UniProtKB/TrEMBL annotation:
This is DNA-protecting protein DprA. It comes from the Bacteria. Residues 92-298 form the Smf/DprA SLOG domain. InterPro entries: DprA, DprA_WH, DrpA_SLOG, RuvA_2-like, WH-like_DNA-bd_sf. Belongs to the DprA/Smf family. Pfam families: DNA_processg_A, WHD_DprA. Transmembrane segments: none annotated. Residues 318-369 form the DprA winged helix domain.
Length: 376
């Protein structure tokens, strides 16, 4: 956190307290805070302004609140913030902090504060967001992890929302490469949601970075996540949608990216797969169709890797019967009866082969008794 007198801890503490107080002031939302800062430049100046000067911008009641001493509730919350900041790796970035993500400054309504845990230098690095379904297929998870790993190897930071499914796979892939990963949460930075991603979140806090615009202690709420999505797209130069249903929140993120002037990429899938519908909608709306990582790197003017094209063929370790069954399965969801007819395999032998291929990670069971091949 930068200050006009960085050598003076008291001055820095006063500056931080003013920013936190502004965020916590009742009646001062993002729009009002922006208007106040445009007029007075700093939170300290806002709280030093006269009631008459404030009344020109805000209501009488808000102006009176800003002129009064700090409320007890705000003072108590400020103590909570100080305790949190005392932990290693914890940061509170104000809008005027040099470490504040530069692309977020361009948003129409950027956050006043970002609570961050981890490597804040990643917030200024070139980044790509990877988003998609929480209820992802095995193929979608594999794609998200592979694309994230390749993009991270190319030096890009992977940004996502720490949700189950595609988000978690993207973070895992990002941690494998040189670029690492940033998780943007819809809760306070002191909370982990969902709990199933606790181990992943703790690793991101060590090797990547977790950020939130929400106050400490904020619990998950439905309205938090669509608002959070504008930060995921806003801090990146591009967004990749891996899997998404037609009504998915990932489409909201992609459309916000378009409004923010970011590139949007989408991975196509089967015309019969519900989780491909959203990607197909985006492609029809102008998103770039992606089937290898260089489809993203080249438009972003990053040196191509062709990483995914060079992955080894793991089917060489399968029996001839298993390979023939995979060839018959193809890449479309297929029922057991249709697969038996296609492959000419007896029902009992087919069930055993399907189970062995599933355990080896070469296919997955889908709802409705369908099977789908997973390209590893």
């Amino acid at each position: 956190m930068q200050d006009t007198d960085p050598a003076n801890p008291a001055s820095q503490a006063e500056r931080l307290a003013a920013w936190v107080r502004l965020e916590q002031t009742p009646g001062v939302g993002a729009v009002t805070a922006q208007r106040l800062l445009e007029r007075f430049a700093t939170p300290q100046a806002i709280f030093s302004a006269s009631h008459l000067a404030l009344r020109q911008i805000v209501s009488d009641s808000v102006a009176r609140t800003l002129c009064e001493p700090m409320a007890d509730a705000c003072a108590a919350y400020l103590d909570t913030v100080r305790d949190w900041l005392a932990e290693p790796g914890h940061h509170l970035l104000t809008f005027d902090d040099p470490a504040f993500p530069p692309l977020l400054r361009q948003l129409a309504l950027p956050p006043l504060l970002l609570y961050a845990a981890g490597r804040i230098e990643l917030l200024s690095a070139p980044a790509v967001a990877i988003v998609g379904s929480r209820n992802a297929t095995g193929q979608g998870v594999a794609n998200a992890r592979a694309f994230a790993s390749a993009l991270s190897t190319a030096g890009l930071t992977i940004v996502s929302g720490l949700a189950l499914g595609i988000d978690a796979a993207a973070h895992e892939g990002g941690l494998c490469g040189a670029g690492s990963t940033v998780a943007v949460t819809g809760t306070g930075a002191d909370r982990i949601y969902p709990r199933r991603n606790e181990a992943l979140a703790r690793r991101i806090a060590r090797e990547g970075c977790i950020i939130s615009e929400y106050p400490l202690g904020m619990k998950p709420a439905p309205g938090n996540f669509p608002r959070r999505n504008r930060l995921i797209s806003g801090m990146c130069c591009a967004v990749l949608v891996v899997e998404a249903a037609a009504g998915s929140g990932s489409l909201i993120t992609a459309r916000q990216a378009v409004e923010q002037g970011r590139d949007v990429f989408a991975i196509p899938g089967s015309i019969h797969a519900p989780l491909s519908k959203g990607c197909h909608i985006l492609i029809r709306e102008g998103a770039t169709l992606v089937d290898c990582v260089d489809d993203i790197l080249v438009p972003l003017r990053v040196a191509p890797l062709a990483t995914l094209a060079r992955q080894p063929d793991t089917t060489v370790f399968l029996s001839a019967a298993q390979r023939a069954l995979l060839d018959a399965l193809g890449y479309e969801p297929v029922g057991a009866d249709a697969l038996a007819a296609l492959s000419g395999t007896e029902a009992g032998a087919l069930a055993a082969q399907l189970l062995s291929l599933e355990l080896a990670g070469h296919l997955e069971r889908l709802p409705g008794g369908l099977f789908q091949r997973v390209q590893r």
